[in-house]
Amino acid sequence: MLDLQQIESRFHLLRQHRFLDVSLHTFSCVESTNQIAWELADSGANIGTTVIAQQQNSGRGQWGRTWSSLPGGLYLSMLIYQSSPENNLPPIPATDSYQLTLATAWGIAHQLQSCGIPLQLKWPNDLILQGCKLGGILTETRIGGEKITRAVVGVGINWQNPVPETGINLYQWLNSPDDDSRDIKNSAKIQINSLEALIAEVLAGIEAGLTCLFSEGVSMLLPRYLKFFRNMGEQVYVDNSVGTIIGVTAKGCLHVRITASESKSVNLREIFLDPGTISLGYAKPTN
Question: Is pTM beyond 0.85 here?
Fold first, then answer.
């Protein structure tokens, strides 16, 4: 079982903000941590309520996919937004829901980068290490009156669990022989020496990201997110046209400049692609 006391004590040492009233609920195996988080929210739980499991049988991924959640990985979900007078949070239009994903992704990337892990962000919601998928983020919302009433974010990160060919395992990366990054890995291993330590770093990252969004606004958050954005400058093929990725908008759309087209009637222009419109690939795994 996870050492709950170790997670809590390390998290309290790491956190630089007191935005969330974090309470942890740990399980050995669940169908979905997001599902349990929603059940707790329906029972009156407040923002910061976090569900952590060592295994999921039906973990949720983006676009309805199932997230492989074998033992050894990090699987957690947190209630991150709830519109109520006591929370004193600004209203979020339903159309701006992706800002919660941007905040969570940036916060986690920033936190792990501070430990020496060269993490990057892949549009729309992947955590990338050496070009391979280290983890993913799924934000689910409930809507009322065209505004978000509640939101749960789910985070999965590969620690010591088996991974597919396009994935990477953080524990193995930290302990793999690599003379070029030996010092970085040794430093990171001191700070992240267990799954409990990784969970604490992720919790601190989520809180930092949400604090940035709600205290400073998306106009401050987005440039920080883009510093970790690995797809900048990549070429994509959209509707018989070639485009270059030039950014991400505050609504989570991929900003693409069309540079060439097979159709002479197509003017060179800039377009905005909603999350899920196209899929961006991964680099080939490296040893």
Answer: yes
